[in-house]
Amino acid sequence: MTIRVAVAGASGYAGGEMLRLLAGHPEVEVGTLTAHSSAGTPLGQHHPHLRSLADRVLEPTTPEALAGHDVVVLALPHGASGAVAAQLPDDVLVLDLGADHRLVSADDWSEYYGSEHAGTWPYGLPELLVAGADGTVTRQRENLAGVRRIAVPGCNVTAVTLGLQPGVASGLVDTSDVVAVLAVGYSGAGKALKPHLLAAEGLGSAVPYAVGGTHRHVPEIAQNLRSAGAGPGRDAVGLSFTPVLVPMSRGILATVTARLAPGHEDAADAEIRQAWADTYVAEPFVELLPEGQWPTTAMTVGANTALVQVAVDRRAGRVVTVTAIDNLVKGTAGGALQSMNIALGLHQELGLTTQGVAP
Amino acid sequence: MTIRVAVAGASGYAGGEMLRLLAGHPEVEVGTLTAHSSAGTPLGQHHPHLRSLADRVLEPTTPEALAGHDVVVLALPHGASGAVAAQLPDDVLVLDLGADHRLVSADDWSEYYGSEHAGTWPYGLPELLVAGADGTVTRQRENLAGVRRIAVPGCNVTAVTLGLQPGVASGLVDTSDVVAVLAVGYSGAGKALKPHLLAAEGLGSAVPYAVGGTHRHVPEIAQNLRSAGAGPGRDAVGLSFTPVLVPMSRGILATVTARLAPGHEDAADAEIRQAWADTYVAEPFVELLPEGQWPTTAMTVGANTALVQVAVDRRAGRVVTVTAIDNLVKGTAGGALQSMNIALGLHQELGLTTQGVAP
Amino acid sequence: MTIRVAVAGASGYAGGEMLRLLAGHPEVEVGTLTAHSSAGTPLGQHHPHLRSLADRVLEPTTPEALAGHDVVVLALPHGASGAVAAQLPDDVLVLDLGADHRLVSADDWSEYYGSEHAGTWPYGLPELLVAGADGTVTRQRENLAGVRRIAVPGCNVTAVTLGLQPGVASGLVDTSDVVAVLAVGYSGAGKALKPHLLAAEGLGSAVPYAVGGTHRHVPEIAQNLRSAGAGPGRDAVGLSFTPVLVPMSRGILATVTARLAPGHEDAADAEIRQAWADTYVAEPFVELLPEGQWPTTAMTVGANTALVQVAVDRRAGRVVTVTAIDNLVKGTAGGALQSMNIALGLHQELGLTTQGVAP
Amino acid sequence: MTIRVAVAGASGYAGGEMLRLLAGHPEVEVGTLTAHSSAGTPLGQHHPHLRSLADRVLEPTTPEALAGHDVVVLALPHGASGAVAAQLPDDVLVLDLGADHRLVSADDWSEYYGSEHAGTWPYGLPELLVAGADGTVTRQRENLAGVRRIAVPGCNVTAVTLGLQPGVASGLVDTSDVVAVLAVGYSGAGKALKPHLLAAEGLGSAVPYAVGGTHRHVPEIAQNLRSAGAGPGRDAVGLSFTPVLVPMSRGILATVTARLAPGHEDAADAEIRQAWADTYVAEPFVELLPEGQWPTTAMTVGANTALVQVAVDRRAGRVVTVTAIDNLVKGTAGGALQSMNIALGLHQELGLTTQGVAP
Predict the structure, then answer these.
(1) CB contact D268 to A (< 8 Å)
(2) pTM (two decimals)
(3) A350 carries an active-site annotation
(4) In what residue span(s) does the Semialdehyde dehydrogenase NAD-binding domain sit (chains A, B, C, D) (predicted)?
(5) Contact A249 C358 (CB under 8 A)
(6) ipTM of this complex
(7) Topology classification of domain A156-327
(8) Given 3.40.50.150, 3.40.50.620, 3.30.70.100, 3.40.50.720, which CATH number is that of D3-152+331-343?
(9) Phi, psi (5° rounding) for residue B31?
């Protein structure tokens, strides 16, 4: 079986990482690559690290260019993928790396993105816990088999969700006052030419941004925590979210804390730890590290792994979780490839690794 | 007036930074420099960046070597300064850069440091707010004039305290559930030869440590917030504290959040912001940045400044403050020099700058 | 076919990278892992990024532990592998990542390493040009088929050799006065706990070492350039070699310059460029970049590629070549795996990639 | 005495560093600050690390705005300062941080900069050796007293010149085949918004540029080496020059090698070393480090020091020198301030330090 995959927006970081992984996928043939202002130039000019594809020439992003593929990956600016997707056949698997189809609530979308909502697609986080009205908990993976449209999650969203959801689904933590602070690498900010993204500015510095709850990933995280059992209402989740750019090219380290839920203040450490262990014991890409070992972003570079650790701070009355991912792999292109595998009925680990490139 | 200053423990990062600043202080003459295992070697072997002192030879740390100075700086490992200080004359100004004399509570000391408490010295954070029983608020500066023993605060403690105390003293924030996550440079971890402190391990990675409330700075921060008005009891402050090493040699960026206090949930942004502005309007080394501008560690490198910004996240119901300092300057040696100036009746800004070395 | 591979010295950076690659090799089964002081501890404690092998326990390095494997990789300190290798059966393929068996000249060995020469093994640089007495030029690859002992080259050696040898074999450059300056990442310095290898020291700094021709890679580079056609005598090659540690965890960027050879001063740029193009046109892992594009280390992270560019500086009368590699992949473990594939008659690209992990 | 200093082009890195130093100069009052596209905005928006000047508003760069100052610093793009300087009174001291007035040869200028030559000003490198026709060697410092126009050297030029000139003036080294490779921090590339200057691209990478002798600093270095004694003709100096961007915000580490001059091949190490020692023994800002200690850029951050070391590689027949400077201080603004002090008859060390900010 050979799957032909086209990538729209191949000149950006997300598109480039998608190509790095696709080039190593045993069942995939890389098809058309498109771009906007870079159309007509060779890929090697934008991603010289992708040697096997360096001579590929980027085409303009048109329905014709994207036709004739089994899978189309949209690595476009937020707000741009809706229009392109609308022109693609229903039987083609479309993976949207942008935000356009992630949010269920049109109000959330318009409030944080300010444009018209393009609609909601199946959410591409296979490990997301889905709490049913009857108290059962399933996983989003089950909702991805056979689908032809997938909204790939935001990178910060993936890190925060995977770190906290076991406590939510188990009812052990209170979601009304969650605090998340993330150390984020610069590739997460994209290739936009902005002064604060210059190396001279970032080297040797820690730079907070979107402080005070304005980051667009806030409603998406809340949506996921509600899925995991926080309850339906918008008020079910209170989240203080602060990302901080630090001098690394890749990686997200998410420190997420939440109070123990009322009635569970005295839950034993072992019981709390067990909730995380049980959630991820069968997951190939999400792992609770051995007790006492804390994740670092270096452990995950180039890998599709999310590494998690949890501790209870009795004096503070808070559970503290730390999650490390590679923002471009598990946080974007790797997660997308994993969801593609599931949607197409392939082994979900095809073309992905759990070994990080370290040191 | 010439002040002769000796530095015990001159081979470490704190001692080296103290010397960098002392060498530029108009009223100071650098006296004896001592070390333990490095005794007998020239300073230039340990701090080649300090050219004017490179040929100074380190002596063993003895009362004789430290005699005959107006000021003695102790830059020794935690637990070591108590014994040395006990042998120094009462009329010599002793600045302890270590933790030995910071904590008021012997219980806190034994719980977090595990040795016998060496006693409490006047606390060297001039800008610390001191809430009186009668409701008046003074500053620790007033308690430093003329003293001959000063306990210099921990670097992380200074960042978290300066960031949050205006909200505490004004009663606007609730101290029962404070969450602090810090991005910390490697010089804060000292010169100890540990595998996780190697450049190969730290470059390109974000590395959490002392997660779950075990960091020794926790009780010191709580002590300061109680001073600022959180109330006397140990339960008056709940603090979740997580430091994360990031790839920079210097700097601390402290993101600190706390809920709005009961009854103040509807306080206007302007009112909240004013509390921070009023607190620091007259302080030369602590500054609330213009609205919308967030501090970065690069702004403070080499300077004695603490740069603060505050915002209110209405949806999360939390005040978010971010504070940037140079851990070795305002966080250690600069703060010590400022306190020395105050204790000796000099202008507190002597030998210190507010201009950071950036980019 | 399944190849059982043991790794001696699995706790170090070279051993860890070997395991990262072996874990992804389709024909390999990772066998026994050994260590010295770390024997008895799980691999995950030393290489937490290698998730699939994290629970493997390290055994002491003994002939018994290494018995029963098809391949044994020696990732031991220089000077230690000779003794271990002597105890291994002749029919086992032994890959020595250390220097012990690289040098042909016992004098070179004793002069630069100061111990007794362990003997010379087939040299594991498949792309090395071998100039015959009859003027024919072959490649070292031909000498690796079927061998059972391979000396893996030094990382800096690989970068400098691949960058310059096309000019040597073609006779276009003069090898009597070669100058090489390398920007080197910290993983190249290993895991030794030395003060100058601390993150606090390396971050934001450029640090030269082994300046003045004392680096142990000097005689090995000269040996290779003689192989490529510089001529037999020790005086055939003059080399000024200076490595500089820069703040990155991986990577070597080698800038190598040499004068145009007498009689070739007027060789056209195109002719010179063609010598490099011809040498590497059929090599899967060494590539001359398109004219005008210069290699960076980021392009090669995690990949087995050596990226080369060449220019002629007419005013200086020198050819300038720049070569980028990942010191742990093409510079060590990847090159070793490639040679293993060749020795065992497998496709040389098995388990290796040309796609770098960037940005 | 109070010197009023205006800075034209205050929003860039060179202008910002000039202001950092001017703010600490005891005799200086910072006057008008101008900019081009940033006119009308506060300085704090561009240089938030300069707290004492943060509220200063940038004015358009006009003769009126720059009038009424004792000193005017031009921190403008190459090619722009000539026109502005022409409008300034003769009795005002003008420091040009740009390249416009550095080169003596109009041919060199037009060849490397492609515009019309603005003329040559006294060269602002006080330590530059000036070999007279009669064999005497003086220093450029003597030519700066009382001048009213100063061309500040290029940062790379300063590093290479100071590292090699003792060998040139002493006749010990041959200047016909000099090879220089530099590790350069990103602030040296300025604030221009170019993709390869993004943090995501630079972090974890080494990036060569202007390879093959095309860098504009080449003719300026040759001019200096001729001044130091290489002889008058353009052919007197052969220079291979390669700069490599490495992940640090500041600093230049220049590795410069040259062959021993004919007749001096057997010069003793001590004699060679003495040439460097004698040249810099009385210089406050240029220092030959103790034998065996090599400079690093971290030693010089924020300081006006150039740290030099020299060794002889007998096998290669080359002298190897390594020089470290802070590109923005000794390489630009600090060197300018030093020259300003000399021109105005002040102590040359005023407002400058030899202590680096490290680690």
Answers:
(1) no
(2) 0.98
(3) no
(4) 4-133
(5) yes
(6) 0.97
(7) Dihydrodipicolinate Reductase; domain 2 (3.30.360)
(8) 3.40.50.720
(9) -100, -130
